[in-house]
Design brief:
CATH topology: Ribosomal Protein S5, domain 2
Radius of gyration: 14 Å
Helix content: 40-55%
Pfam families: Ribonuclease_P
Enzyme class: hydrolase
Order of helices and strands: HEEEHEH
Number of helices: 3
CATH architecture: 2-Layer Sandwich
Number of domains: 1
Strand content: 15-25%
Shape: globular
CATH class: Alpha Beta
Number of strands: 4
Distance between the termini: 33 Å
Subunit structure: Consists of a catalytic RNA component (M1 or rnpB) and a protein subunit.
Catalytic activity: Endonucleolytic cleavage of RNA, removing 5'-extranucleotides from tRNA precursor
Largest sheet: 4 strands, mixed
Structural class: alpha+beta
Protein name: Ribonuclease P protein component
């Protein structure tokens, strides 16, 4: 049975890990997101991905708007992450992923949902490339 939850252990909260991710991680853009990711060694917890979400204060000066964008993004991630988790568990990998929202307007939920699915497919391809080079 699939669980559609986003628990505390799945959230990227470690300051050290976030700093390392921004310093050493790889990045790509799928508008309206900039995605930074990095494999985590040794594994930190039982979940294959720790995810973080951010929205610029400069582009959204009101906290209400920033929180709305983060809430929508987390919901899209929560509903679509399971297939990505399965791929990572088969390869026994663990990732840290950070989503940065870059648009100046709040996109509709359907747009964000489709963009998160594109991001997940791109991450799967990046992981496959990384496995072939090993």
């Amino acid at each position: 049975m699939k669980t559609y939850s986003f628990t505390r252990e799945e959230r990227l909260k470690s300051r050290k890990l976030i700093e390392t991710l921004f310093r050493e991680g790889k990045a790509f853009s799928v508008f309206p997101y900039r995605v930074i990711y990095m494999p985590v060694n040794p594994p930190v917890n039982k979940y294959p991905v720790q995810a973080g979400f951010s929205v610029s204060t400069r582009k959204f000066p009101h906290a209400v708007d920033r929180n709305r964008v983060k809430r929508l993004t987390r919901e899209c991630w929560r509903l679509q992450k399971q297939t990505f988790y399965d791929v990572l568990q088969q390869r026994s990998l663990q990732l840290a992923v950070f989503f940065i929202y870059t648009d100046k307007k709040i996109a509709p939920y359907t747009t964000l949902h489709s963009k998160i699915s594109v991001i997940l497919k791109r991450l799967e391809n990046e992981i496959a490339k990384g496995d072939q080079s090993l």
